[in-house]
Design goal:
Blueprint lengths: L2 H40 L4 H44 L1
Amino acid sequence: MKEATLISIATEALVTTIKIAGPILIASLVVGLVVSLIQSITQIQDFTLTFVPKLAAIALVIFVAGHFMLNTFIGFTDSLYHQIPSLLSSG
C-alpha cells in the first residue's frame, strides 16, 4: 500500500469522524456554556443541572441529525469496501 493512499484513507477517516461527532460536541459545548453561565449568575452549584440539559441536547441532536450521521458513516464504509480490490492489487 502506498503512503499517499494510506494518508488519503486516514484523512477521510478524520473528516468523517469530525462530521459525525461535530454536531454532538458543539451542542454539548453550547449547552454546557449556557448552563455554566446560568449557574455562575444564580450561584446554584448542582451537578445534575449540567448533566440533564446536556443529555437532552445530545438526544435532540441525535434525533435531528442522526440520519445525516448514519449516512456519512455508511458512505465512508462503502468507499472503503470499494477500495479493497485496488488496495490489494497495488500491493
